[in-house]
Amino acid sequence: MFDENEWIDKIMEQPGAALIVKRVQSRLKKEQLARKQFYNQIGEDDKAEFVNGKIWMHSLVMKAHNDVTKALLILLNTYVEENNLGYVGVEKIMVSFTRNDYEPDVCFFGLEKAKHFKEDQLLFPVPDFIAEVLSKSSQAIINHDRITKFNDYEVHGVKEYWIIDPYDKVVEQYVLENGVYHLILKAAEGKVNSQVIAGFHIPILALFQPSVCRDVLKAIMNNTL
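The chain above was modelled as a monomer; its predicted structure follows.
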């Protein structure tokens, strides 16, 4: 958890607090110029993010990662469309936070946000729900999802955050309460019930076993979920 007041207190204890703030503002201004360049550089085929002043280019994903992302997308998108709940984005959709830009694996926007979307829209607001599927990669990439994104999503009010491990086949579900993420589920079996997407609840195995995914999809289509 990021404690904003703690960091502010540390700065305020310094005699040069005003100078520190001025330097931070100068760096942030330069960073925003780099951010604009980032928008101009990336293309539709690039999977890239702008995080804390740096460009993150994502590598190819393994089949396990793709299978889980695809399963969640199929189930969530079908459910949201069948119930007219909002809009679901996947991988290449770029969501813009105050400082950073991310391309979540799967995300959801409620109707209040989705009703303003346009066909030619390139940047999207902070989602109500985000799911990130972990990759078998370096510790830096793992920390990207578990620390950097976790803190940014928390601070900016993403109401629900799922971290899915496609290799150990575990789902972690975090829900925002009073501005802080609380882990309400970490499991490899049973059901995961969304706290943000009304009525969306699926067996965890549906994300990892195609046969279970198909059964749940049929239940969604038949309105028997």
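The helical segments are 4-12, 17-41, 63-82, 111-114, 139-155, 210-221.
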